[in-house]
Amino acid sequence: MTTMPSLDSLDGVLHRVGSDRSDAFLPALTVQNHAANLAYLPDGTLTCVWFGGTMEGMGDISVYLSRLAPGAQRWSAPEKLSDDDGKSEQNPLLFVAPDGAVWLLHTSQTSGHQDGSVVKRRISHDGGLTFGPVETLWDVPGTFVRQPIVVNGRGEWLLPLFRCIGIPGERWTGDADFASVLVSVDHGASWTMHDLPESIGAVHMNIVPLGGDEMVAFFRHRFAERIQRSRSHDGGRNWSPPEPTTLPNNNSSVQAIRCADGQIAIVYNHVDASASTDRRLSLYDDIEDTAGDAEAASTPEPADRRKAIWGVPRAPLSLAFSKDGGQTFGERIDLETGDGYCLTNNSKDGLNREFSYPSILEAPDNSLEIAFTYFRRAIKHVRLDRR
């Protein structure tokens, strides 16, 4: 199915659609739903968090959560977990700490100004049933999260993030963004920031432990060429400069995990800038119409700076596997196909047709749980059996 689902059709029920696949559209309360992240709660409940509202960047964008209890076939009604009507609250993720506390993290920004974003936190001490007050985890403007926290062998917490850098006199478009890691040695009470070398254009850092102190990370590429890859040999404090993998990227999010059999599974859009001439100025063209935005947009830009590429179609959505730590990828499966049109974020009128921002987990029975944006109207869940 490649038509836009109506809100009434988002019933949350898992339906068998093949010998090894089941699909569901998560229930939703808003016309736009985007940026899913999956996590298991301590009791085994599969959860999905995402942001929803009228359009990314608007003040009504908030974080939502839905649950799929062990053995259940229907996702629960969404729960609203953020509610600052002056901020766009985006890119949520859940983290189950070693002590069992469940952390919710998300970004908070005004309009399309990602270079002013900070990271917020709420903590649950009852297994994710309820969450405590909103706190600021990191208040350096331009800090953005997308991928889960990882705990290394020494018990240090690693929060991958990317820095949205504002250039004086210009509107943010992502040209100068780079990767960093927040490290905590005291269970999240305090953090230190560690920037990755030579990482301009490498964002959405996704850390995958390989065993011991060995780690690999994968990145979205602002310049829409290839998924980027970096290595750490010291448990995630120091990283090599990101380098291109063999997989294309369209300046849209990717996510990878290491499966129980040792393979890395990654979900991504198998397309890059060379496949299409579709372009847009920035992610927030639909809403950036203030006087300040107009003045910034009219400022001449340096000709020698690489420009982030926006608007490359976000389809197909594909799953690929690597047996060598992400150096090469073999088997590939297309999970969704279509034209992937994303020159606008408008889902209310059915204009956006992207499949994007995937999240992936391996279930206890080795099946793969995948969630992603479907036309910015819905979050779709796909379960792939691998037994």
From TrEMBL:
Q: Which InterPro entries match?
A: Sialidase, Sialidase_sf
Q: Where is this region: Disordered?
A: 229-250
Stored PANTHER family = BNR/ASP-BOX REPEAT FAMILY PROTEIN, BNR_ASP-BOX REPEAT FAMILY PROTEIN
- Can you name this protein? Exo-alpha-sialidase
Ranges where the Sialidase domain occurs: 44-369
One Pfam family of this protein, by short name? BNR_2
